[in-house]
Amino acid sequence: MTHALLYSRAPVGIEARTVRVETHLAPGLPAFTIVGLGDTAVRESRDRVRSALVNSGFDFPQRRITVSLAPADLPKDGGRFDLPIALGILLASGQLGRIDTDPFEFIGELSLNGSLSPVPAMLPCALACQSTGRTLIVPRDNADEAALAGAGTIAADQLAHVAAHLAGQTPLPLHHCDAPLAGVYQGGCLSEIRGQAHAKRVLEIAAAGGHSMLLCGPPGAGKSMLASRLPGLVPPLNPNQALEVAAIYSLRQPRDSSLFHQRPYRAPHHTASATALVGGGSYPRPGEISLAHHGILFLDELPEFDRRVLEVLREPLETGEVSIARAAQQLTFPARFQLIAAMNPCPCGYLGDPEKSCGYRCEKAKRYQSKLSGPLLDRIDLHLDVPAVDASELLGDKQGEASHTVRERVKEAWRLQWLRQKQLNRELKNDQLEPMLRSHRDWLAGVMQRLGLSARALHRSARVARTIADLQGSDNVERDHLREALSYRQNLQQKQSS
Questions:
Q1: Which pTM does this prediction carry?
Q2: Of 79-93, 96-110, 313-327, 340-354, minimum mean pLDDT range
Q3: Start and end of every MCM C-terminal AAA(+) ATPase domain (predicted)?
Q4: What is the three-class DSSP state of 434?
Q5: Number of independent structural domains in the chain
Q6: Among 215, 283, 379, 421, which one has the highest count of C-beta atoms within 10 angstroms of its own C-beta?
Q7: How far is 332 from 58, CA to CA, in rounded Å?
């Protein structure tokens, strides 16, 4: 037999397409050619495979070897095809005999000594493999990740071990992963923050409805500490959400299976580029907003980000996904994140403080705050002023509620939302809000005119009001709930003009 066919996978966004690895040995001068739109790493597979075969005790055929990675128009990258290419050569040269490889898929990079090295994007490949009913053979360091998908998974350390398994000499057992897919956040506790009772109240509302929030206050007021406590207030990921998150992280690099259950908390530096935030590259990979899927994206020192970088947040905040267009393809990554941002009110940070302020209230503060566009601010549900902590509260003995106590109230609010509408309040459609708005129509019309609210801002406040009602266990949204929600709506530009 001079021809062999094996199956592998190539990631395309958060999905993975089947790749047919065909190997043909023909007479003629020795040559080794790989075709199929592979990048440099794929072409370099020739040298890795040759050394791995020889060092594993096999013969490297001195013939014309052609390897086709089909479909030919699908871009392929990395060393994930090393293992099926090496096995294809062994099968085509008759060194393994006649073996039916249809029940298997193979993914793995080869070291020069024949050992298998882990590759990224294993979980999307395993999920796709699971739907076909095939068994996936992978490097041992990828095995836990692949087994999470529920597919039959075999872990191997060496090329020789895979060959012995296929030949029936030394069967390899199926691999099982016992890593949890959900768990409670193990971070700081809310009780560690002294004072800021009002800010903690708004933080609870944000957690209960998944709302975005902007914290504005002087340096040292506790904005970053408040944001870092948010993951401890929300319920853990359910297994399906954890699998989605793990699949996204898998595209970047192999990940410790013990981290799969954690709700993401991403805090990129303000020097991050638009590509770092959204994702991209020749072979597009997810950016920070996708890595924060089902979690929290915290942007500290918000006006210090480049304005063009911040503007890319507008579409994902509305749609929950981000599209990346390239000449050959267009990919969509999920990005249903909760945005928490923090900023100082002015460059010196002490706007309005008679002792510490720089004194340039009008010029510097307005110029600083104008770095944030109105459309972006309009998409943030909660705008909160965080004052400096009073010394008596900072040095006192009184502690606030612990995170686990607040989390129980948040969990109950989530339960009510899922029973009523099968989604969080932040995802409510405008037509779902109409009955609530009609019942307070005349009053809301005056509020809109007085505050200069857009239709988007009104609907976002209505979602917040629905969350406040859920926290109080109320079936109906009353005017007090709307009044509190609207009190968190006045944005920076409106404050400057008032």
A1: 0.88
A2: 340-354
A3: 287-382
A4: helix
A5: 2
A6: 215
A7: 43
